[in-house]
């Protein structure tokens, strides 16, 4: 087969909804509608791009058990008013789904299968349904339990070793023990996340990265608490162990939201109607024991850097999804990177973590930070339940 001249994939635009709190201002909006809003929003940022020129949609979603069923990427295309001729797929790599979508989309551009690809992801954790397993035989006599699909393991296969199927919080308490990351450090990290996110919104950083959801009054990320302090967080009770270190204050909350990114070849810039913002220079997945999932971004980022041909000393900005303060600190410690360049505009502890949407959020935020700061190289990384991590290295060729 003839290869497509080694074309690189570039980010041209990134937009997301504000992230709503669980049972908050976006709780009345279906996930397929949230996704359609993000799609329309990112295309509105590129007014010269004819939607007919988009070759493929790759969309991330972690649940798929409710209104986001039956390929929510395709549903959102239809709801958004995009051409019915635009094909779409939905990918599920849990918390990493929309970063995975961007990685798949970038390969689609590089291979020449499409010149312009729309990627992103969505999650409504509020609207995630309860599920009931079907009985093994008719007319069971006992009760059955409706299982919440909002977060974490469900309907677990009994063949799975128990240590693999621990709750996400318990897994991170194990990570805390392994790396001796104190409650004080975790609370300080969480406080910083809220303060930086609040400051970033106040200074207008997120204004052109976000699009309002019709029919709602959510104008900024609802989980940000500007008044957060280390002292206040210190009063919270541990959530997973009596003597534990992880609380509701130093872990990401449950959220609703969507994110979208337009990727394209450099040759497509004339049709897209804008200059490329950043080149996808390296990408990688990594995996380890399920209970150590919070540490998986470490190896994913190392691999992505090697593929990009750069080192940590070259990196000017890092966006690491803050699933828990403890796993974020473990990753930053392992990389040996300057903590000040990580999540300088706040992270998921404050902004929120609607599972399928977070990868697109960190990618868009990274691009803007690199453009604003004149950074040539940046890393986006995310940990994923059941022992995985993803990372993407971007290059700002204008720096």
Task: Outline the structure in words.
The protein has 399 residues and is α+β, with helices and mostly antiparallel strands. It contains 11 helices and 12 strands. Strands 1, 2, 3, 4, 5, 8, 9, 10, 11 and 12 form a 10-stranded mixed sheet that branches. Helix 2 links the parallel strand 3 (56-60) and strand 4 (88-91). Helix 1 crosses helix 2. It is globular, with a radius of gyration of 20 Å. The two termini are 35 Å apart.
Q: Can I get a quick summary?
A:
By secondary structure, the chain is α+β, with helices and mostly antiparallel strands. It is built from eleven helices and twelve strands.
Shape descriptor: globular
For the record, what CATH class of the domain at 9-128 and 253-395 applies? Answer: Alpha Beta
- Structure class: alpha+beta
What is the quaternary state of this protein?
single chain
Beta-strand percent range: 15-25%
Percent of residues in helices comes to: 25-40%
Global mean pLDDT: 97
Q: Please state the CA-atom Rg, rounded to the nearest Å.
A: 20 Å
Instruction: State the helix count.
Output: 11
In the CATH classification, which architecture of the domain at 9-128 and 253-395 applies?
3-Layer(aba) Sandwich
CATH topology name of the domain at 9-128 and 253-395: Peroxisomal Thiolase, Chain A, domain 1
How do the SSEs run, as a string of H and E? EEHEHEHEEEHHHEHEHEHHHEE
SSE layout and pairings?
Blueprint: E1 9-16, E2 20-21, H1 31-44, E3 56-60, H2 72-79, E4 88-91, H3 97-111, E5 116-124, E6 130-131, E7 147-148, H4 168-179, H5 183-202, H6 230-233, E8 255-265, H7 269-272, E9 278-287, H8 296-308, E10 315-320, H9 325-335, H10 348-351, H11 358-373, E11 377-384, E12 388-395
Helix pairs in contact: 1-2, 3-11, 8-9
